[in-house]
Amino acid sequence: MNILKSLTCCGGLIILSALWLLPAQAHGPFPTLHVKDLPDGLRSNWNSLKSEMNENSHCAAAFDSNTEGDRMVFKCSIHIKMAHEGARRAMHYCEEARTEHRIKMPCKLIVE
Predict the structure, then answer these.
(1) 68-94: string of b/e by CB count within 10 Å (b at 16+)?
(2) What is the CA radius of gyration of the chain?
């Protein structure tokens, strides 16, 4: 009986430890791209929207060219209450636009 209690306790601690680490992955399973790696046009979009964003806001981008505007996609989810939902929506909006513009690069969440 004591062995079963200690195994249950250890299992609970492992699960609790895993749950404690979840907030560290605020962007979820999505690939990310650093702001400094954005083309100038997309970086200026990011900078102009930054003042409206809160800690749960997310933007996603995809681009096949650093200079051609029609080969770039930049979509954001700004006024959102949950970070994971903001990331999911930004990626969804980006994927829709990426498909429409036939951009080959996958969408990535933008991080600072």
Answers:
(1) eeebbbbbbbeebeebbebbbbbbebb
(2) 19
Structural domain spans, the chain:
26-111
What are 39-88's pLDDT values in tens digits? Answer: 999 999 999 999 999 999 999 999 999 988 889 999 999 988 888 999 99
Cα 112 from Cα 101, distance rounded (Å): 26
Q: 3-state DSSP call for residue 19? A: helix
- Cβ atoms of 91 and 30 within 8 Å: the answer is yes
Q: How far apart are CA 75 and CA 66, in angstroms?
A: 17
Distance from the Cα of residue 4 to its chain's centroid: 41
Answer yes or no: are the C-beta atoms of 110 and 46 closer than 8 Å. Answer: yes
Contact between residue 93 and residue 74 where contact means Cβ atoms under 8 Å apart: no
Q: Which of 1-10, 18-27, 95-104 has the highest mean pLDDT?
A: 95-104
